[in-house]
Request: fold
Amino acid sequence: MAEQTGQISKGAKIGMAVASLILATAYFTFLDYALMNIQGLDYFYLFRK
Amino acid sequence: MATLNKQAQKKIWAFFALGTFVGLLLMPLFLSLPVGASGGAPAPAASTAPPAAQPADAKPVEKSRDIWYKTEGPVIGAPAPKTTDGPKDYPRYNFESRVLLWVANQQHLYYGSFVLAVPIFCMVVEYLGIITKDKALARKYDQLAYDFVKISLTAYSLTAILGGILVFTYLTLYPTFFGYLASIFRPVMHTYALLFVAESGTLYIYYYGWDKMREGFLKWVHVSMSVILNVIGTVLMMLANSWIAFMQSPAGVDADGRYLGNIWHVIHTTLWNPINVHRILGNMAFGGGVVAAYAAYRFLTAKTDEERAHYDWMGYVAMFIGVCFLIPLPFAGYWLMREVYAYRQQMGITLMGGLLAWLFIIQAVMIGALFLTTNYYLWQGLERMRGAERYQKYIKYMVFVLITCFIVWLTPHTMVMTPAELKAMGGQQHPVLGNYGVMSAKNGAINTIITTTVLSFIMYQRGNKVPTVKWAPLGDAFLFGLFTMAYVNIIWLAVYGYYIPANVRVGLSVPQVATTLSCLFIGVTLNSIMMKGAKELGPTVWGQISVRSQYALIMLATAFTWMMGLMGYIRSSVRLFWHVNEIMRDNSPWAFTHTIGFAANMISFNVLFFWMTILFVFWLGSLGVKKAPAAASVGQKVPVPAGSH
Reply:
């Protein structure tokens, strides 16, 4: 199996890393927004000013 | 038939004895009720009959209002005494009585925490031994549980002795105050004493019955006894907590301190439950630290590789348990502080923004030191594993991140300065470093420290393993994305906080903590799933670890001890000049807050005293060792806690 891991191309690895970064960004942005909203606060306060 | 009769007789006697014991336990509670407390005759307050039905000479019942619950109740107790500075209320040596009481209290608390926490570990580990199917592993778990309880047994006697010293110190140096407290908590104190007897009996049967109850159903009975032991221990702790909670946020009495007949109100004050939760978690973290230090001590003095392997593993397990309870501890502390603010805002301000605020800076330093030490131990632990060398190159970057955050974390908001220094710096805050002394920066720093600790743990889990699941590359990519963006998010929120008003900024701490917890729960769970059935690059060689790692464990335990002493002092001194807040004033000559330097010296003395005596306890424990620990030969696999490698 370890050999299989090694068989994955560099491009695929970069692709997965980029996809994962995008997914994590979306998750954390949602988390920030939702948790501020629960407290009755505006996460985008600075940008709406 | 005759045998059956004998068995039946035994059962009857057993139930009779149990019933008597339960009755004795409940008697103080009965006596606390108005009927019982009045010496048999129905208390006028309890009577619902019309006044005409009462005897002509019966006095009207005085009623008063509960200071916290605002309910009305019959006045049963005397008002809180108004003390004066003199030998009647404050008899003394030519010495500050408060300092003697401080030492007696703190030492009793250290030992009490230890002997309450260790049986909980013992229960968990013994249970793991029962459910483990592999007999060799089960024996090792059982030996570990036995080792745990053996340490606590010697400490238990010392706890009782220190409790006696504490009561004598109260009686001889603060008789009026203690008399008042005892008059309010009379039934609770009796229950406490009886529970202590029950705890002692259960502990001794549990320890000495270990070998006889080793197999089959009896083993289940034995582990059930550990549950009973821990229930009694926890109730004991909660009863003792009710006394300190009452001193800080009294209830069940009126404004004059007169007891109103409802013992539950006196016990269940507003700070009681937050203190209970905080103390249970704190005790567990502290107990883990002390057991880890014991294991480190035994590791350092071990003569054979087998012993070293066993105590290395024991130290790791204890450290793991301790850190598991350390992580939720700040949240419990947050709840306690929130309740303090809700009870009396001024009390909260005195704690965190006033007189005692600098002590919180010291606390920050201790917390930083705890996390640095935990990381260091995990990195040293990589030495046990063949194949873990590939992770060594990342450690220097992690050190850089941790040290940078640690420096930000301990930067004070304002400095204590001479006028000349103030002028040279151009104000209370340094033009550059002052920016790091605010909560925005500090929240970012501590969350980065905890996230890095989680990363260290994941690295340790992976040590000598390579995942073999098909989706491993995807899992690795996900972990990379999760941690990278978690760091970015934490720092972003910290920076963002500088540009928005305070009322919005305060809310940012919640998503910051959620980011850290996401890494903890998602990251560790995903990694654990990936590591199932993973290919091992080499064995984990328990015992093959640097001596420095063992000193790190001792450092961890010492830091826990110091922090407990510090936080106990903070919580106690926030009452300022009150024995019982707003009810009974402290009129002794020592009703002032000590300087930070004096307090720090006292805490250090208490820590040193505790460690000197606990070393004695460890030494005593080692005298009783008749057999070598369960064989765990070098290089042999030994069980590790769930979620570990």
Observations:
- Residues 2-48 of chain A form one domain.
